[in-house]
């Protein structure tokens, strides 16, 4: 693992909201705005942008935690700009905070954690257990 970054460095991901991002469950459409789930996935991706530049060829990142405080809606057709900020990198763990905004409107904020592991170790950890 290499780390060309310092705490405070940023990565930006832009999520364009489509109908596929709406909140839906088995009982149907909840509301026609970007779901918390979709925002969380985009936030994790924003933090992963650091991991992609840190991991070696024989390594991969895996999520360890995610917090999301959903503050306001993002509507179909809007671009949500997610800025991930590197908080720390200790050992193999990469911690980022993030803010998701549409224009000046805060849509969500929180933190993500990812760990960079050797692919072979990750394969062992994620292999189905025999009962």
TrEMBL record:
SUPFAM superfamilies to which the protein is assigned, alphabetical: Thioesterase/thiol ester dehydrase-isomerase
Every Fluoroacetyl-CoA-specific thioesterase-like domain range: 17-120
Protein name: Thioesterase family protein
Organism: Pontibacter ruber
